[in-house]
Structures are given as structure tokens and as C-alpha cells.
Amino acid sequence: MDSGSKIYVAGHRGMVGSALVKRLQEQGYPNLLLRTSKELDLRRQADVDAFFEQERPDFVFLAAAKVGGILANNTYRAEFIYDNIMIAANVINAAHRSGVKKLLNLGSSCIYPKLAPQPMKEEYFLTGSLEPTNEPYAVAKISAIKLCRYYNEQYGTNFISVMPTNLYGPNDNFDLEHSHVLPALIRKFHEAKKLQLPHVTIWGSGTPFREFLHTDDLADACMYLMQRYDHREIGEFINIGTGRDTTITDLALLVKETIGYTGAIKYDQSKPDGTPRKLLDISRLQALGWHASITLEEGIKTVYSWYCSHHDEGAAVLPN
Ligand code: GFB
Q1: Given ligand 1 and candidates 16, 67, 70, 165, which is best to mutate, with the most ligand atoms within 8 Å of its CB?
Q2: Contacts of range 298-301, beta carbons closer than 8 Å, 24 or more positions apart
Q3: How many CB atoms lie within 10 A of CB 116?
Q4: Pocket of ligand 1, candidates 74, 163, 180, 199: which has the most ligand atoms within 8 Å of its Cβ, to mutate?
Q5: What domains lie within the chain, and their CATH numbers?
């Protein structure tokens, strides 16, 4: 990529896409091609083909997806598989047809078997059954990995896939039903503090482990890989994570402390736990010279400040 390259970021309004746009701009890539989902519905093949034919981007970051937390994944199962397969198939096929030089496809750590050994190495892919709560999303993401791989093999394209762990950052979804755990906890503890509620209820048992990566780190890793490595060096895909995880209870305690809430934590065990643990093995990424730099403590503080300035009337009031 050079400063004149035409770069399409699919999903630029989302949490990941917006972090990529910020990073691309910071690194001096002004020629960005951006379309909202209203302007271009990526599920419609003819529209996607016409867009690529007309615009002919040099590079593509495929960050568009229908995403959500455990309950959204488990509820809107048909939409999660259909929308995500259509988006991936249309963008990857159009990128090939229009001669895109390189494409980076964003997946998810839920592509691994539910009970994969920990930490999860890339070679554990497709060695066991998936976690049922996000099987539709995972199958779509697995299809996208395979599309990239087989287009590379048959057509000689250079499409790389990356599998990030659980992500958080600005522009996340803070809806209590549909969001992931971290934005949900930020909102729950913030509102409980403001309204002086006696307790906050979190879902499941609190015992599952999750690994969290800030989207600024993810964007940095994506740029690093896009600029330096092609699909032969990356292989079928590569993990992106921090190498550290935490239980949901410890995460809740950290958010509680960051926000300065003093009430109790209760558990709603009628909600699913999901997979017990999904820590990524990041040795391959480290061997390529990249590591995360934002700690979970710092990341939660900055996202909480972002939440307060975008979703709440009052400014962020962090305890000392
Ligand atoms: O982040 P999350 O929704 O998704 O939930 P997954 C992680 C864990 O946090 C689960 C618990 O064990 C939840 O039960 N949890 C506790 C909560 N309180 C809450 C809460 O208030 N809201 C939410 N949402 N969770 C998703 C997949 O799985 O991970 C997607 O469904 C995707 O497909 C994404 O792969 C990265 O980590 O379980």
C-alpha cells in the first residue's frame, strides 16, 4: 500500500471499521473509499459487483458484518448466518473480479471448536464441534476464511484472513440485549452508580474466561499485516489477541472499580455462559513481530470516557 492507493474499508461505521479508518488516516492514506450500508447493501451481489467495477479499489479491509453479543447471536440465528455469508461472498468475489491487489478478511475466535485446547493454535481450526450459541456466525466466518483460501489457490489472489479475539473500543454497541459483555458491563455499572442501585446483574455464572483486545490494537495489527505479509506467509489465517484472559467475574470487578460503583454483583443464571474459554495462541503473530500495547485497565478507562461523552449527559467521572 502507498499513499496513493485506493483503499475500501467495508463496514467503516462499525467499531472495527472506524478504528481502521482512524489508523489509515493517521498513517497517511487519504484515498479511502467508504459507503454506508444504506448507500451500498453488501448482501446484494449485483450492487456489490457494480460498486467494485466502478470504483476499482486497490486494497480492501473486509470489516463489515452483522455482529452482536451472545444473546443476539443466539436469537437472530438466520440473520447471522445469511447476512454474514452474503457479505463475505459478495465482497470477496467482487474483489477477485475487479482485480483487488490485496484483501484483509476479519473473522472471529468463535471459529474454533467449543472445547478446543487452550490457548488455541491456528491448527485447531475445524477439529471439533462449534459453540452452539454462535454457530451460525461462526459458520459464516469459516466460509469467509475458506473463500479467501480457495480464491488464492484457484485465482492467485492475495486475500489474507485474521482471527481477532473478543474486541472492545469506541463506537461499540451499548444496547443491553444485543451488545457484547464489556460494553454491557460499562453501561450497567455506570447506570447503577448514577441511580444508586443496590446491585448490578450480570449474565451466566461469571466463570467463563474471555480475552479482550482494544480495536486500536486490532487496527494496528491489521495494518501491520497488510503492509508486510502476503497470504503465503500468513497461511489460511492468523490469530490476533493479547495472550491474556480473565473471568467474567474479574472483568465485572474491574469495570466496577474503574467506574467507582460500590454496590453488589448478582448473577442471572438463566442467561447462557457460552464457551468456557477461548484464549488465542498468539505465537505466530508474535513471531511476525507484532504485540498488543493497550492493557485492559487502560482500555476500559478510555472506553468508559468515550461512553460518557457519547451516550450520557454527564461527563465521565472516574474515581481516583
Ligand atoms: O461478550 P459476549 O456476549 O459473547 O459474552 P461471547 C461473554 C460472556 O459474558 C458470556 C457473559 O459468558 C456472557 O454470559 N456476560 C455477563 C454478559 N454479563 C453479560 C451482559 O450483560 N451482556 C453480555 N453480552 N454478556 C460472542 C459471540 O460470544 O463473541 C460472537 O456470540 C462473537 O459470535 C463474539 O464471536 C466475539 O464471547 O460468548
Answers
A1: 70
A2: 299/168, 299/169, 299/212, 299/214, 300/168, 300/182, 300/186, 300/254, 300/255, 300/258, 301/258
A3: 21
A4: 180
A5: 7-168+211-240 (3.40.50.720)
The yes-or-no verdict on residue 317 having pLDDT over 70 is no
In short, whether 66's Cβ falls inside 6 Å of ligand 1 is: no
How are the residues of the chain apportioned to helix, strand and coil, as percentages rounded to the nearest 5?
45, 15, 40
Nearest CA to ligand 1 atom 7: 181
Q: In what order do the strands lie in the sheet with 32-33?
A: 32-33, 7-10, 59-62, 102-106, 159-164, 238-240
User: Rounded to whole angstroms, how far apart are CA atoms 48 and 8?
Assistant: 12
Separation of alpha carbons 248 and 119, rounded Å = 17
* Interatomic CA distance for residues 55 and 40, integer angstroms: 13
203 Cβ closer than 6 Å to some ligand 1 atom: yes
Share of the chain above pLDDT 90, in %: 97
Cα–Cα distance, 93 to 4 (Å, whole number): 24
Specify the 3-state DSSP secondary structure of 62.
strand
Q: For 33-42, write each residue's pLDDT tens digit.
A: 999 999 999 9
The answer to whether residue 137 is catalytic is yes
Which tens digit of pLDDT belongs to each residue from 137-179? Answer: 999 999 999 999 999 999 999 999 999 999 999 999 999 999 9
